[in-house]
Specification:
mainly alpha; 0% strand
């Protein structure tokens, strides 16, 4: 899960489109990632679920985080 404020969208896109190494990925996650160990993980998850339910009410279901890596 990523959290990107409006004023950081350009920076996020730049980092995302130039990913080449594991260090690049770590930097992206450090700047924008909401890992499972993030103290507000469930707050972000709940907001994501609400947005999904509102935008796709027929396809809505709970998201499965079993394979979500915490790296």
């Amino acid at each position: 899960i990523y959290y990107v404020s409006e004023d950081k969208v350009d920076e996020f896109v730049q980092q995302l489109t130039t990913l080449k190494t594991e260090d690049d990925y770590e930097n992206l996650m450090d700047a924008f990632g909401v890992r499972r160990t993030h103290p507000d993980f469930w707050r972000y998850s709940d907001a994501l679920h609400r947005a999904f339910q509102q935008s796709e009410p027929l396809e809505y279901g709970l998201l499965d985080y079993n394979r979500l890596e915490n790296r």
